[in-house]
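## retry 2 of 3
previous attempt timed out at serialization; input unchanged, resubmitting
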Amino acid sequence: MRALSFKSFMQGMPLIGMLFWSTVTVSAEILTGRLNGHDCAERGTSCPVDRLDPHVTLEADFVLQQANGEYFFLVNIPRDVKVRHVMRPIEATGQLNRKYNAITVDEFRVDGELVWSQDLVDQEAARHLWPGALTSN
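## retry succeeded, writing output
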């Protein structure tokens, strides 16, 4: 059996890199709908009726519910952000996990306006840390 030369190995690296890269890239999905209480979405109803409805305080979590009734958990959006936008038209962009009906959100828009993004959270965290805290040595 002939040994693999360094030159042949290096010529094959771009192909190996392309195969690896293609398996780990994830395209962002865009979901649209309204924020509904999870318990209500599970029962197939729309509640709370408005942002002053007592259901708001009773709901443990809110989900993005589409017009067809399908709903998705917004796993990295804080509850306080969701509460402010209950029953309003929203758009979430991120990585979708259909197994768990969940989306890890990169951008969260309400009525077309960006109200939350992972980049904004990262920038805010960096502002509150000492200089250089996010850089590695």
